[in-house]
Amino acid sequence: MNKFKKLIPKLNKQTILKINQTLKSFELLNQKNNLYWFNELCFCILTANSKAETAIKIQIEMHPDGFLKKTSTEIAMTIRKYGHRFHNTKARFILYARKYMAIKTILQKQPLETHRIFLVKNIKGLGYKEASHFLRNVGYSNVAIIDRHILKFMLQNKLISQIPKTITPKKYLEYENILKNFDIPLNKLDLIIWAKMTGKVLK
User: Fold this and answer.
1) Domains of the chain, start order
2) 152: Cα within 13 Å, side-chain hemisphere
3) Residue 124: is it exposed, middle or buried by C-beta count within 10 angstroms (0-12/13-18/19+)?
4) Ramachandran area for residue 125 (φ above 0: left; ψ -120 to 50: alpha; else beta)
5) Cis before residue 185, ω within 30 degrees of 0?
C-alpha cells in the first residue's frame, strides 16, 4: 500500500457526499461559458488574503455578470460591504482582469501545462495558490491549492519540516509534487484535507 494513502484523513459519509457534490460542481462549471469562468476568476482574486466564505458571499451578490458590468466604485462598495480588506485594490484588479473576460477561450488556445503560468503572469492579484484555486474550480484535477491548512496538514504528517513565511513558485511546485504521491486527484485530496483541518467543505 502507498504509504501516503495511510495519511489520507477518514471522513464521515455526510462529508464525503458533500465533497463529491463539490467535485461535481467543478465538472459542471468546466462546461460553462466565458461569463461563468470569468466570474470564478474574480472570486479567486477575492480569496487572496481573505476568507473563502467572504469571497463566496461577494460572488453570490455579483453573480453572474456583476464583475463585468458594474463600475469600479460599485464593485469596491460590494466588497467593502462584506468586510473584505483591500476593497479598492481588489476592485482595480477585477477591472484589469476584464482584458481577459474570454478567459476560457484564451486558455483553451494554449497548451494545458501553461495555463497556470499564464494566469500568474497576466492576472493581477493571482499567485500560484489563487491561480491553482481557479483552475481547480473550473474542472482541472491536477493542481493543488497550497494554503495554510494544507501546509499545516503536511507539517503534522512530517511531509515538510516547517511552514515557510512565503512560498516561491519553485517551492510551491515542490509541495505540489509531494501531494501527488498520495495517488489521488489533487482536487479531491484538497477537499479531503480541508474538511479534516477545518470541518468545512468549500470550493
Assistant:
1) 5-27+144-198 (1.10.1670.10), 32-137 (1.10.340.30)
2) 8
3) middle
4) left
5) no
Cell, residue 14: 455526510
- For the annotated catalytic residues, the residue numbers are 129, 147
- pLDDT in single tens digits along all 203 residues of the chain: 478 889 999 999 999 999 999 999 999 999 999 999 999 999 999 999 888 899 999 999 998 999 999 999 999 999 999 998 899 999 999 999 999 999 999 999 999 999 999 999 999 999 999 999 999 999 999 999 999 999 999 999 999 999 999 999 999 999 999 999 998 999 999 999 999 999 999 99
Amino acid identity, position 76 = A
The predicted model scores a pTM of: 0.95
